[in-house]
Design goal:
Layout: H1 2-9, H2 32-42, H3 45-53, H4 59-67, H5 72-111, H6 117-123, H7 125-146, H8 150-164, H9 174-177, H10 180-191, H11 195-210, H12 216-235, H13 237-240, H14 247-266, H15 280-288, H16 292-304, H17 316-321
Helix pairs in contact: 2-5, 2-7, 3-5, 3-7, 4-5, 5-7, 5-8, 5-11, 7-11, 7-14, 8-10, 11-14, 12-14, 14-16
Length: 323
């Protein structure tokens, strides 16, 4: 209790802090409708990650086909290897569109007046947990995707083959599944280093643009509040001791980094500016206190997927912490 009192009285009191129950939060009657809708999307997230993790690519078949352009058997082998992979990539892309809608439903619930973002997150913990789960999934998906260069190689081969259309007597029915317009959209999606994060950033930016009567702060404050709550939970033994699983610590770190990146993309001044409502120094410090294996990817995400880190307005000490 003494430590908890210290948390409530030290500098942290400038930032929102409460225990967000990422493990056990259950929807109230008021949250149920949105929760059910978002849950319908989230329950497919593990199978999407498993599918991505198992993605091996058709690199060898493509190389053989390119090196032997007159060998129709090898051309057919490459094509038959690539087509199921393209269908899988379409599934991942389709999931990103569903995730976008789910995020916007949550933002609608967590930003609506008269409650403040802090009140929303504290009272609607099941929705806050789902928001966190979307961010957690997003960082995991993008981490995996960055390690699989085969995705873009396979898709490039698919598009080249379709456009040349030189494989005679071969089944091109896949164009009914992935037509040119769909292929263009998928190509833009997979060209991004972090496609799911880009999807969430755009979804949040579009949400702000479409809700002109809602102040921008209502949205960015949800993000900064979530970052602050995660940071305080991570650095406070009284809170971390309430976690039943060590995985919740990593979950909390991923969510904190996810909302920082999202805030940095959506707020005009970004997350690193002195006027930012996120204690960036404190957040980075909390990460650096964790085992290096757990946080290397997260620190890299802050370095390479944020928008404003290298702005002149970013304090030098913050930039130095991420060198």
């Amino acid at each position: 209790m003494g430590n908890l009192l210290k948390v409530l009285t030290r500098e942290i009191e400038n930032y929102p802090h409460f225990f967000l129950d990422f493990e056990n939060a259950q929807p109230t009657d008021g949250e149920r409708e949105v929760w059910n809708q978002v849950n319908g999307v989230l329950q497919d997230s593990e199978s999407i990650l498993s599918g991505l993790q198992a993605y091996k690519g058709a690199g060898q078949e493509i190389r053989d086909a390119i090196q032997n352009p007159s060998d129709m058997y090898l051309q057919e082998q490459a094509w038959n290897s690539v087509c199921p992979l393209v269908i899988r990539l379409k599934k991942f892309y389709g999931f990103s569109l569903r995730l976008e809608k789910a995020l916007q439903s949550l933002l609608e619930s967590l930003t609506c007046p008269p409650c403040t973002p802090t009140q929303h997150l504290e009272k609607e913990q099941a929705l806050a947990k789902q928001f966190a789960e979307i961010l957690h999934f997003t960082l995991r998906f993008d981490e995996l995707k960055m390690r699989i260069p085969a995705i873009q190689n396979d898709f490039s081969y698919y598009r080249r083959t379709i456009s040349r259309n030189r494989i005679n007597n071969m089944n091109l029915d896949i164009e009914n599944e992935v037509n040119n317009e769909m292929a263009n959209r998928m190509s833009l999606f997979y060209a991004e280093a972090t496609p799911m994060l880009k999807t969430l950033s755009m979804a949040t930016t579009n949400f702000v643009a479409e809700n002109k009567t809602l102040p921008l702060e209502n949205t960015t404050d949800v993000l900064s509040t979530m970052a602050s709550v995660c940071k305080v939970m991570l650095e406070t033994p009284d809170y971390t001791s309430r976690f039943n699983s060590e995985d919740t610590l990593l979950f909390c770190m991923r969510v904190m980094v996810g909302v920082i990146i999202l805030y940095d993309h959506v707020h005009p001044n970004g997350a690193f500016n002195k006027s930012s409502k996120i204690d960036m120094k404190g957040c980075i410090k909390v990460l650096k206190e964790q085992p290096a294996d757990n946080v290397e990817g997260l620190l890299n995400a802050l370095k390479f997927t944020t928008k404003h880190l290298n702005d002149e307005s970013t304090p030098k000490n913050i930039r130095a912490m991420l060198q």
